[in-house]
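Page 47, continued from p. 46.
Same chain as before, 196 aa.
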Amino acid sequence: AFGAREQPASVAGVAGVAAPGGAIGGSPTLIVCPLSVLHNWQMQIAAHTNKGLRVLVYHGAARSRDLEELRAQHIVLTTYSVLQSDMRCPRGQDDAGTCASVLHAVHWRRVVLDEAHVIANPKAKQSKAVMMLRAERRWAVTGTPLQNKMDDLMTLFGFLRIEPLDDAEWFRRLVGDPSRSKCPRRQAEALQVARS
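Result:
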């Protein structure tokens, strides 16, 4: 969901905890955020969840790349830049099957993108790294989903797997081209498609 907020909303919900002492089953949650809010996520998780929650900050030169350690966590916090820098793909190959990254090797229960508008450019390595993550559920949190044009939404729809708008050609036909039209009716139709 797109939505502005001053601090991570419902941190317990992100962690999958219904109430203090609640149990979590399955894979961990990955939270990807800018470095500027990484510490805030740590503080909010500590303040609003039970103390038995296993939280790993996957950041810094000494970060562990142990797959089993990541899978044993309830929450893994990382940044967009770390996600991008850890992704090692053979030249010209940008699919999850050929990229060697411990973060891409985990099938996450949930991936949460904070400040999700940073993936607006689908050609950026950072956006490609995000799109390759495997997850059962996907959340995109942003207060500014549009930076310059309606096309900025395409990568967000792609990350969220919202059909048919997750396909670049469909998005172009239903939203992109009409939003650039000089006809106000077509512009309004594009906005309506994006909202629905």
